[in-house]
Amino acid sequence: MKLNYKSFGEGEPLIVMHGLMGMLDNWQAPAKEFAKYYKVFILDLRNHGHSPHSEDHSYDLMVTDVIELMDDLGLKSANILGHSMGGKVAMKLAQDFPERVEKLVVADIGPRYYKVHHQSIIAGLRAVPLNDIAKRTDAEQFMKADIPQPGIRQFLMKSLFHKERDQFGWRFNLDAIESNLERIGEAIEDMDFQGSTVFIKGSQSDYIRDEDWPDIKVLFPHSHLITIEGAGHWLHAEKPTEFIAASMDFLHE
């Protein structure tokens, strides 16, 4: 699958991957900061953004997509950064193709199994009558009952677009995401990765727990953990300066 991407800057390559129901646009601001020192590639993973849709959505397939893009770009290896679902893609890529990964940055996700609690979000998205709304703000009103958090609604609204004059659509493939939720939550524990790795978590997020760390160290023995105070799961959006600094310090080592 040919993934959509944008690139910025010059230097060593850095590939950046978004999370579930996100897209590369979520990472443009951090990418431009990273691009002061690196050649940055931000991707739309399959079933997201402007990349192709498919009924199949698994970490094996997403890794294959990224390797195909690296081959097309002539990248023998790259620094890899992934957030949430994109972090699991990054870990899987590092485990399966360690020779393609220079350094690994994993943002607020671990390799363990996660129960994906997105049923209310999917219900909110399904509640939007895409053929009957006149403007984007109308969509948000239909989402409120199932998705009370304004921040999550605004994040999802970034993927709402005008398909035709009187019809809206979602950039992500909602059908594929809903049917593959269990696969999105699955563990990435096939083998270890001996490369240099940093896990960056938000202090207000429970995606990486204290009890997870011993298992993480088994799979990523040359890893360390950085906690960004005051940040939740979307740490790159909530505390961008701190997140970029932590990532850059590690990449510059």
Short characterization:
The chain is 37% helix and 20% strand.
Please outline the helices and strands:
Layout lengths: L4 E4 L3 E6 L10 H7 L3 E6 L15 H15 L4 E6 L1 H12 L4 E7 L11 H8 L9 H8 L6 H8 L2 E5 L2 E4 L3 H6 L1 H5 L10 E7 L10 H7 L3 E6 L6 H4 L1 H13 L1
Parallel strand pairs: 2-3, 2-4, 4-5, 5-8, 8-9
Antiparallel strand pairs: 1-3, 6-7
Helix pairs in contact: 2-3
Structural class: alpha/beta
Measured as a percent range, the helix fraction is 25-40%
- Coarse morphology: globular
Task: Report mean pLDDT, rounded to a whole number.
Answer: 95
* Oligomer designation: single chain
Defining traits:
253 residues; alpha/beta; Rossmann fold
